[in-house]
TrEMBL record:
Top class in the EC scheme: oxidoreductase
Domain Rieske, first and last residues per copy: 50-144
This protein's UniProt keywords: 2Fe-2S, Disulfide bond, Iron, Iron-sulfur, Metal-binding, Oxidoreductase
Any matching Pfam family: Rieske
GO molecular function, one term: arsenate reductase (azurin) activity
Naturally occurring in which organism (per UniProt): Calidithermus roseus
SUPFAM superfamilies to which the protein is assigned, alphabetical: ISP domain
InterPro entries recorded: AioB/IdrB_ssu, Rieske_2Fe-2S, Rieske_2Fe-2S_sf, Rieske_Fe-S_prot
Protein name: Arsenite oxidase subunit AioB
Taxonomic superkingdom: Bacteria
């Protein structure tokens, strides 16, 4: 007589394997154990709605883009929670995204990402959101990048 496994049993076993393999810590997304540098990427007083500011983070070969959306956003900072930053590398093939019409557009294959919804892809060939750069606002209004949620395209590690 053969034993049958329920879906729930299989899921529990797989979850246990993942937990053991990862040392009990989540490995996807922002890893607090990584020593991300804090870097000034702008000042809250110099931003205008819809204007993109490009910068390099977490190192000189990774471009990021900061934008004040004028509407509340997931992970947004500032008074209106409308300032966000993302990796500027499309998650499909690494082309540089551009901020146009309230969204990020990849000029290579036309993937589109919603900056108000944590960089979620809603059109095109990309299948994952843009990695979001975590921001903090200093007392003087400086915007500091201080981590990345997700893996930057083409990398095995962000830093």
């Amino acid at each position: 007589m053969a034993a049958t496994l329920s879906r729930r049993s299989v899921f529990k076993v797989l979850a246990g394997v993942v937990a053991v393999a990862s040392g009990g810590k989540a490995q996807y997304g922002y890893a607090p154990s990584l020593a991300y540098p804090a870097l000034k990427v702008g000042n809250i007083n110099n931003l205008r709605d819809g204007q993109a500011v490009y910068f390099n983070y977490p190192d000189g070969s990774a471009q990021g883009v900061l934008v004040k959306l004028g509407q509340r956003a997931i992970g947004g900072v500032g008074r209106g929670r409308d300032i966000v930053a993302f990796s500027a590398a499309c998650t499909h093939m690494g082309c540089g995204v551009q901020f146009k019409g309230g969204r990020f557009v990849c000029p290579c294959h036309y993937s589109m990402f919603d900056p108000a919804k944590a960089g979620q892809c809603y059109q095109g060939l990309a299948s994952t959101p843009l990695p979001q750069i975590r921001l903090r606002v200093a007392q003087n209004g400086d915007l500091l990048a201080q981590g990345v949620v997700g893996l930057i395209w083409g990398r095995a590690r962000n830093i």
